[in-house]
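Notebook p. 47: complex prediction with PXG.
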Amino acid sequence: MTTITNHLPTAELQKLDAAHHMHPFTANGELAEKGARIITRAKGVTLTDSEGNEILDAMAGLWCVNIGYGRDELADVAARQMRELPYYNTFFQTTHTPAIALAAKIAELAPGDLNHVFFAGSGSEANDTNIRMVRHYWALKGKPTKSIIISRKNAYHGSSVGSGSLGGMSAMHEQGGLPIPDIHHIDQPHWWSEGGDSNPEEFGLARAQELEKAILELGEDRVAAFIAEPVQGAGGVVIPPATYWPEIQRICDKYEILLIADEVICGFGRTGNWFGSETMGITPHIMTIAKGLSSGYAPIGGSIVCDEVAEVIGGGEFNHGYTYSGHPVAAAVALENLRILEEENVIGHVRDVAAPYLKEKWEALADHPLVGEAKIIGMMGSIALTPNKATRAAFAADAGTVGYICRERCFANNLVMRHVGDRMIISPPLVMTTEEIDLLIERATKSLDECYATLQEQDLLK
Ligand code: PXG
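Predicted complex, structure tokens below:
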């Protein structure tokens, strides 16, 4: 039996890693000097590294391990499925039980008439599906000029050429010739950094109305869809003002624009409902899903599609699909994950216990001298670091300098908390207990204190 050589000393593993492994979104040269942190095991909300450190994972991996680590049920299901049918495809009029059962379960959980699932291996792939599906939909409806998809600056929809184009990350667009044609980006509802003197409600409304302006400028006959995350995740956990989503829904309805909710992070309980769209009170035509669908235990994503779009697309052949669309092992694992979420009432735990408890403690971090705002919805939160709370000023140092220092303090204190520029963000496993939330807040506070002291020492508090 082949074993993975994780018995090597940390330094040797780091050397092999640096020599052969190209990491995503990482300056690999810099990492090689420092050596990557090697995670060897995990249980519940706690990671263990190759040096035996026990780290509280306030990011649920990469926003995905909703049920927490180490659930044997998922491992058992995967092993059973691998023995029975490790692979078969869902092309050319074949199917298999795991894909059938998962699609039916997702249709049951999804709101309204979102009754059909097109599977993919990831969120990026699912959003690529969405680009082709909405354009093809309008072509089939006799309106082939409706091909523009409107998205938002600082949105994240994936890393493939298509999904990276949908995303509004300028650093990504600078590399590799993105965006593809007919993607249009409007401004985001990020009041803290872009709201100026307006109040959040006015600002949210104004940012939503940019969608209407864009439709009128581009021409209603040119716009196919609008895509957005109910709450932006990778952009820094940007919770839109309450005025934003109702106005977006009004505009999509008025101009017959398909609404795609990218639920890759918000889906499967993160915001306190099964889907972020429910929390925001919107009715999308398509939802993108991945991450929490399998709690990250197996790679799987997909598009949940409403009756009308599915019917039109299904009228002919949709020349699209992935080898691993509806992969039987991934589908079986996802189904077991959904069983746990449902039978153990994990979303009820978020709504009634974890989220209210975390909200109170998280928002209290706004009293810290370094913190300008502390916002949270369900189990996803952010804090804005600032040298001046009153003016919401950015630091004089390059954006991300202070956030990076804070993140390093968190790491040193055995807490995984991410930074996006100078915002600190969390997205812990949904099963987190109140004791674990206390530990999270204790370590976060210590890290903020240490970061503050470092900024004073290095004269960066300006
Ligand atoms: N949509 C959203 C909203 C996401 O957050 C994707 C699509 C793409 O999914 P895949 O499975 O292709 O990665 C994502 C992924 C970060 C970070 O730094 C966030 C994601 C992925 C990697 C890093 O916060 N989100």
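Notes: Residues 62, 122-124, 127, 156-158, 229, 233-234, 262, 264-265, 288, 290, 301 surround PXG (CB under 6 Å). The chain has a mean pLDDT of 97.
Next step: compare against the earlier run before touching the bench.
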